[in-house]
Amino acid sequence: FAPRHLLSIADLTPAEFTTLVRNAASHKRDIKSGSISRNLQGSLSGKTVAMMFSKRSTRTRISTEGAVVQLGGHPMFLGKDDIQLGVNESLYDTAVKSPIWQTFDGAGDQRSVRQFHPLQIIADFLTIYENFPSHASAGLSSLGLNGLKIAWVGDANNVLFDMAIAAAKMGVDLAVATPKGYEIPPAMLQIIEQARSGAPSPGKLTQTNVPEEAVKDADILVTDTWVSMGQEKEKAERMRAFQGFQITSELAKRGGAKPNWKFMHCLPRHPEEVSDEVFYSNRSLVFPEAENRLWAAISALEAFVVNKGKIE
Ligand code: CP
Q: Per the residue annotation, which of 78, 266, 301, 303 is the catalytic one?
């Protein structure tokens, strides 16, 4: 049995991504109201899910462990210091049958796993779906979000890559503002372009080095850390380069964001990326977004572990 992997939103058709988000929404509704669908209940009963992590994590770990428990399984958290991973045993030998893991986009055979963040982006689009429900009616391949605009202000990192792929597939426009020299790499632009070419009504991607330009007419302002794990040595240089890229109400006003704009951040957050007055305001969706990691993980476990890659 060759498992189907979920390494990126690029692995999903627009219809599959739509189904994962819709299933996450419906499991959230059911479980919060005290019921769980018959297909899900006990679907991992008697099963142990090995969760191999080679980096620190709060949300990914908690949501995945919680999701396994909701389905009746036993989550086994295996941090890099708990097992022989990469020290005394190869990743291949260690991980032959583990369905979920998270690693550095560092050296060697681990590189591809951490270039994207698909569970985060399922949760993010669930959050957008819940907060922008009045858009055009949706078919099987769309969440009805066409015409929305996201402004990403900050670093072009792995979260942005999967967000750009999902936005392209869902007909959501994405404007990205990074400092000069920190733009989306050309190889990633090709992957995003492929996502656009497979979408029924693709979202537009634009890039700029001016935050105000990205923010213009945006419905949602998003950022993330300026210094991802593994980039600690570049911290001082990055702090200098990203001056002027903090998301504030003043930036949103100057740039001309839509009047009801919202703010998202996958967390953990650092104050230089977004001001407190935005982060803790009623524009901020960051805490529902974090909660939605649980429902996204349940939806992904159902599709990729319980149903072995069949998304319906
Ligand atoms: N957003 C996110 O993935 O958080 P953690 O790194 O804490 O899991």
A: 266
**Quick one: which H or E segment has residue 229?**
none
Mean pLDDT (whole number) for 62-83: 92
266 catalytic? Reply is yes
CA atoms in the 13 A half-sphere facing the CB of 233: 1
Q: How far is the CA of 64 from the centre of ligand 1 (A)?
A: 11
Instruction: Please classify residue 88 by burial: count the beta carbons closer than 10 Å to its beta carbon, then call 0-12 exposed, 13-18 middle and 19+ buried.
Output: exposed
Distance CA 250, CA 258 (A): 13
Measured distance CA(144)–CA(79) in Å, rounded:
39
The span from the CA of 211 to the CA of 90, in Å, is 43
Nearest to 61 by CA among 286, 290, 265, 288: 290
Q: What are the pLDDT digits (tens) for 4-32?
A: 889 999 999 999 999 999 999 999 999 99
Can you tell me the distance from the alpha carbon of 110 to that of 210, in angstroms, rounded to the nearest whole number? 34
Report which of 136, 161, 165 is spatially closest to residue 14, judged by C-alpha positions: 165
For ligand 1, the distance from its centroid to the CA atom of residue 294, given in whole angstroms, is 12
User: How many Cα atoms are found within 13 Å in the side-chain-facing hemisphere of 31?
Assistant: 19
**Model confidence at 93, in pLDDT bands (50, 70, 90)?**
confident
State pLDDT tens for residues 204-214: 999 999 999 99
Cα–Cα dist 18/167, whole Å: 11
Beta strands, E only, 47-158 = 48-53, 74-79, 100-102, 149-153
pLDDT of residue 106: 36
pLDDT tens string 124-152: 999 999 999 765 567 788 899 999 999 99
